[in-house]
Structures are given as structure tokens and as C-alpha cells.
Design a protein that fits this description.
globular; membrane; NADP; six-stranded parallel beta sheet; G6P_DH_AS; single chain; about 20% strand; oxidoreductase
Length: about 500
Amino acid sequence: MHHRAFEYDSCAHRSYLTRCILYWAIFYFLHLAKKKIYPTLWWLYKDGLLPEETYFVGFARSDLTVDAIRAACLPYLKVTDAEAERLSAFFNRNTYISGKYADEASFSKLDKHIQSLPGGPEANRLFYLALPPTVYHDVTKNIRHHCMSPKGWNRVIVEKPFGRDLQSSEELSAHLSALFTEEQIYRIDHYLGKEMVQNLMVLRFGNRIFGPIWNRDSVACVTLTFKEPFGTQGRGGYFDDFGIIRDVMQNHLLQMLCLVAMEKPASTSSDDVRDEKVKVLKCIAPVNMSDVVLGQYAGDPDGEGDAKLGYLDDPTVPKGSTQATYATAVLYVSNERWDGVPFILRCGKALNERKAEVRLQFTDVPGDIFGNLCRRNELVVRVQPNEAVYAKMMSKKPGVYFSPEETELDLTYKSRYKDVKLPDAYERLILDVFCGSQMHFVRSDELREAWRIFTPLLHHIDIEKPQPVLYKYGSRGPTEADELAKKVGFRYEGTYRWVNPHRL
């Protein structure tokens, strides 16, 4: 029987939460709501992790009903027969209001509706903005002027993208800060809710063995990877507007870089952790185009199904688009710990596998006595799929010969924690919002520094429209990217591959 890997009393205000009444107003696209938001709320409600007196109010332009929302969400809720009654109780606490995002009267109607629910004016209110940035201004302004709780707390969750570049991000931040305090704003990057991303801090600062080697003296390079085995699949219109760097690299990969590179915070409080992340970002210069490889996937004539189709074959992609579906960029953290160590960020679509990981490759062992038979040690944190931490090391090959071979010290979660079901990233993060913890959310100055690093590169790409290198659907990506990684110090021998013991 699985149990959920939650700390049930980890929230300092848990006893308060069970007594309070809370309203959750969701502004959304149904696509995201049905696949992520409603399933997450259901799982939290089902496990008793939300206050029992929580009510959920949907708000959008579409003319919907709760029954329609339930039907759309049901395939994603993972409901067992024994949970049917609990599911009914959950949807009985759901209501829906249709309105226009720029219409003050619509928000007055929303507020009146919330006031009419049990607990009314005393309730806390949490607003989730799963919306395109183009309507953030109208929605947040109307929330502030018409929907704030007069007695409870008010918090706003904002989904990425947080702008398109430094200027648009600063404008959005200025707008939000004029309406809400920083403590009320939760900029959600779901990667910060991943089990292994959160584990990076414990691995680094809870183990003595890593401290002395976690620096430029022992680490040759750090590679952060995000790979997807599918293409845009009809979402080319959205993707072509933003591209792989805005979609993945500037947020997900850069957040992981911060957790790998930052100094030990004074405590695990939200501000102490985020202070150290900002210090890392301030040490990174804007990315140079000479340290970047851009790629775009082409169809594989020998492939099957979607693999035969290239990016430009997607009917939702503009003809002749030069948008990159793959990118490798090399960044440097110019401080005492990391000076000269390349951080290689790689991300792309239509690649050979689904994988997200952090890989530290260590320097060669000095004074080699084994005739160049030893490979570099690596520490790998696999974020998805099959969460794992493993160290690639050399060991004597069993038998009569004195021959070293590569093997691993392995912590694979499905083998070590067989009776634990890991919560979804959104579950962790939404629970954090209820508890008022902002550790795993992006602060305004953190966001500013992240955009500072990538904006010159993005503007260059938008204006010059460099032709990306073509790579075949289902491949490892452009060979030019491997050559760039090799040039800056990454060594790929290709002689060893980690085997998931859960599959043996």
C-alpha cells in the first residue's frame, strides 16, 4: 500500500489551517486547469492536506459548468472506486463564474459570490493565475480593487512565463508590486517542486563528503539537461512565440544551476535561501552567442508516426520559422568557488529520451597508475523520470585480472523507497502557498537577474534570426552541441550507461 511522501505537520501553521476557511479562485485556460490544477487540488483535498472548509471558485471567459469541468478533469484525477464519495464532496465545494478579465463588474460579481459562501468576509483568499501574461494586468488590478479579503490573508500565484525579456518582466513586476506586497506574490516554477530538485540542498549541505570537493578544484564541469522525446504536437503557435530558451532554459535549468552553485544559506528560511540564489545569478555574465548552439528538429524519414514530421511540418508553426527547439548554452559563475568551471545547459524537444538531470563531472585523478583506463567520476542527480542519485566511479573488474571498470553507487528511489508515492511538484508548491512558505518560489530580484543573463541573447536571436542547426527527430541533438561541450571541458567517453535497477 503506497503512502504519500508528505510531512503532514511540516507547516508551522497546520493547526491554524485546519480551523480556517479558505477560498481558492482559479483564473485559467481549461487545458492547464484540467491537467494540473484541479487534479492537484483534488489530491490535496483527498489526503486531508487542505482545510476542510475550503471552497474552489473557477473564473474564466468560457461559459462552463462545474459538471463540465468535472467531466474534463476526470481522466486526470486518478480516482479509485473507494474515493467516489470523497470526490463528490470535493466537487460540491466547487463553483464557477463566467466573466471578462477586463470587466470590473465581472470581478464585483465574483467577490459577491465568494461573500455568499460560508464564512464570507473572514475567509483567506488564494488566487491562481493560470493565464497568458497579456491579461495579467487587467486581472490583477481587478483582484486588488474588487476581490481582496477584508479580514483574511490574500495570496496570488502567478504562472510563468514572467514576461519575454528583462524589460517586460520588470514592467510586470512593477505592476504586481504596486498592487500586492512581495509576501503575497508566488511566482510558480513547477521545477522547484520536483523531489530531486529539492533534494539538491540536502545532498549538498547535509553531507560532509561533498563539501570539500564541491568547487573548482575538483569539478571539471557541470551539465544541466532537459530532454523531451516529442515535438510541439500542435502547440507550435505558443512555442514558436517563446522558444526553448524562454520555455525551459531561462527558468527551469537556471533554477537548478542556482541550487548547485549557491553557498550554504544561513538557514532554510525562504529569504536566506533565495538570497544565496540571487548572489549566484549576479556572478553570471550575459550569455554570449559564441557559447550557444541552436537547433531545430527535422523529420526522420525512417521514423514512425510523429517522428517523420519536422518542426516546420507542424501546421501551427509559421512557415519558414527559425525558432530553436534545441539549445545548448555555456555559462560561467565568476566567484571564488566556481571561477572557470563551465555550466553547460542543454534542453530540447524531439530527442532520443525523456530526461532531466544534473551531472557534475570531476577532474581527472592526478598521477594515473592504471594506463589511462580510468574514466572521470561523476555525480548525477536524475530529476525525471526514475528519480535517482548515483555516483559513477571506478572499481576493479571481478576476476583474476587487475582491471578497473566503471560502475555506480546508486540510490534509485523506486528501489530504496518502495512504499512511498512521491507527490506531484504542484502538490508540494500549492501546499507551500497555503503554509506561507516562499522558499520554492521565484523572488522579484531573482527573476530580474535571470532575465539580465538571457535578454541580450534573446534580443539577438529575435532580431538576427540565426538559422538553427537541423537535427533528426529522435537523435541526441546537434553534433555541434557535443562539440561545444567538449571544447569547454566536458568529456564524453560513451562507454558506460546507468541501468535503472527497478527494471532488472
